[in-house]
Amino acid sequence: MQSRFLLIAMALALGAVLPMQAAINARLAKISGDPVMAAFISFAVGTIALLFFLVVTGQFKLGFISSQPPWWIWTGGLLGTFFVAGIVVLLPRLGVVLSFSLVLAGQMFAAILFDQFGWLGIAVKEISVGKIIGSILLIIGVILIRKY
Fold it and tell me: Would you write out the chain's pLDDT as a tens digit for each of its 148 residues?
């Protein structure tokens, strides 16, 4: 029970970090004059931080490359750049709440599909009435946020 609570707290904290990161990157885009430059700087700093962590902790290993992983495992960073650059463009135009409400709605829709079909090796977890109702409520929330 305690570890489940910690996982939930971690998920909430990660969710709180996203608007902070987006606001920081939006400000960086304004200062640099370009959302793509802001995304590049964000990823460069993150890459350096991760490399430092891996080296310091002795976890820097590239042996997995010889195992012939599926081609799509290399696309995570590309998707991350799309997200960071996209949110930097959206945030000043839509605001933090609407931007992340729409992002969250998109995440829920995609997450339900990934769970239902087990895409990209994810364990299958069938769609339930509760998930459908929760998603509908989320969409209603986005509509209310947009309207008010």
Answer: 689 899 989 998 998 999 999 999 999 999 999 999 999 999 999 999 999 999 999 999 888 777 888 889 889 999 999 999 999 999 999 999 989 988 988 898 899 999 999 999 899 999 999 999 988 998 898 889 888 8
Specify the residue for token string 């081609």.
71
* Spatial CA neighbour of 27 closest among 48, 17, 41: 41
Residue 87 contacts by C-beta under 8 Å, 6 or more apart in sequence?
A: 22, 25, 26, 99, 103
pTM: 0.79
Q: Which amino acid is at 87?
A: I
